[in-house]
Amino acid sequence: MDLVFSDIHADIEGLETILDIAFSSEFEEKYGKVSRIINLGDLLERGTSPKQVLQKMSELANSFPMISVMGNHDEGFLYKKFLSGSSYASLKEHELLTNQDTEFFRQNNDGTFGDQFAIEKKDRLFCVHGGPVNPDKIAKKGDDPWLYQRTWQRLSEEDFEFFSYSGYHYKAESAFGEAKAELDNFIILCGHQHMEAAIRQTKDEITNVLPFRYETEKISQYTIRKRQIPIEKNSNYLIRMGLGGPQGYYGGGFARPHFGIIQDDPRQVTFFELE
């Protein structure tokens, strides 16, 4: 079983809550044991515990197989590009990070960090923070090319694609077309927009398959809400994870930790949200 989360945003309480639930005996008895961890990016910024989050992720990487991709806030910190939403307390804690703390983000031979995306052919997964569209295929109009990268791409809420200063907004059709060059009957896993989404592509149509209603259950001391998406044969899916670390929420309001799992036999994705 894969444990999947995104957008922890330096929130150690959010990460620890997800792990407490997923590794509890009650959760394991009902859903199975975690065999791999998938991090979809944005471990850093906005929250106030970056050192603790990176330490925990390093511990997990030493104990479990892990797929981990870069988020735009991870890149913002590592490449020293300012992104909005971090409080003074968050900025100060990030200033204290050392090179040893950030070793979780592998530095590549060309000086970049980590992976913009990861393809897992055995399980037919395309993992990315924002979107899978190759930025070289997007017609740019003189805007900051950084905002076209896969870490910045966003699933469009309109029936067209466009650029804004929050990134390039792609249609699900483009995402599926990109992944088809690498995989068949696949799942695109992404995060970035802090809200869950589930879109299915069949031979004839692209449809939203995210259930409207939740089921509620008690796991250990936690009450969680869940939504399940069966993965049908001869279909492709775009699955977007919700906000993992509530400290990453920007603009006021109230947020809860979200995460997901991928199970086989039968193959399905389940979203979880702390109530």
Structure explained in plain terms:
This protein has a single domain (2-274), classed as Purple Acid Phosphatase, chain A, domain 2 (4-Layer Sandwich). The chain has helices at residues 12-22, 25-31, 50-63, 72-78, 88-95, 172-180, and strands at 2-5, 36-39, 66-68, 117-120, 125-128, 154-155, 162-164, 167-170, 187-190, 197-201, 206-208, 215-219, 222-230, 236-240, 258-263, 268-274. With 275 residues, the protein is α/β, with parallel strands linked by helices. The radius of gyration is 18 Å and the shape is globular. 20% of the residues lie in helices and 26% in strands.
CATH superfamily: Metallo-dependent phosphatases
Order of strands, main sheet, comes to: 3-2-1-15-16-13-12
Spatial gap, N to C terminus: 23 Å
Low-confidence stretches: none
CATH architecture descriptor text: 4-Layer Sandwich
How does the helix and strand content classify structurally? alpha/beta
Fraction of residues in β-strands: 25-35%
Beta strands, count: 16
If you consult CATH, what is the topology?
Purple Acid Phosphatase, chain A, domain 2
Helix amount: 10-25%
